[in-house]
Amino acid sequence: EIDNCFNQYNKEILMDRICTYLDKIFEVQNLYNAKECIVVMGGDLISGAIHSNLRLENNQNVIEQTMYVSDMLSQFISEIADNFEKVRVYSSEGNHGRLFPNKEESLTGENFDSLIPYILKAKLQLFDNVAIIDSQYDPSFGVFECFGKMYVYTHGDKDNVSNVVQNMTLMIGKKPDCILMGHRHTNGITT
Fold first, then answer.
1. CA 106 to chain centre
2. Element (H, E) at 58
3. CA atoms of 160 and 181, how far apart (whole Å)
């Protein structure tokens, strides 16, 4: 929870934002008669142990956060699934869900963000139109296609805007049409 002169945030605000976001998704669906929805979770779903002061300020421990976020996202995706013929869900792990503050001590995939898709698969298994898709590359990034274009998604803590296209092109062997990055804490579009 945050309540200061710069920002205000809590579970109620989160739910209001989720509902507003769902309304916008359905507006776009109606405008374009969309049949499929792609959901990309860009990491930092969990506030883990990387900053001791932040960890102490959290009003939920990491396990409680994992359960809460999994429940909230399964409800969000089920709402989408009730309105679209097909839903694809992709995810990358962020840096805040690490188990250890020192990133050199962290193993690839040892991140609380990695539990979320696993839990979502179980919670949404009765939805035939929902696919939770694992990255074929690495937990921190992946690739999907939409309308013949190749998209790369990554949290972005290991990348920067100036070299991400070159790095991803080298890793996947093809230049992507678009890269979706999180971690920057501000919205932006770079061409």
1. 20
2. none
3. 9
Pairwise CA distance, residues 123 & 71, whole Å: 8
Cβ neighbours of 108 (radius 10 Å): 10
What's the rounded Cα separation, in Å, for the pair 17 and 9? 10
- Each residue's pLDDT tens digit, 151-174: 999 877 878 888 888 989 998 999
The pLDDT value recorded for residue 31 is 97
Please identify which residue in the block is written with the tokens 């999994």: 70
Q: Please, are residues 112 and 46 in contact by the beta-carbon 8 Å criterion?
A: yes
Q: In what order do the strands lie in the sheet with 86-91?
A: 36-41, 86-91, 130-132
Q: Are 94 and 44 in contact (CB under 8 A)?
A: yes
pTM summary value? 0.87
Q: What angle do CA 6, 12, 16 make, to 5 degrees?
A: 90
Cα end-to-end distance, the chain, whole Å: 35
d(CA 135, CA 137): 5
- Residues found in the chain: 191
- DSSP strand pairing (149-154 vs 141-146): antiparallel
State the residue for tokens 């609380």: 112
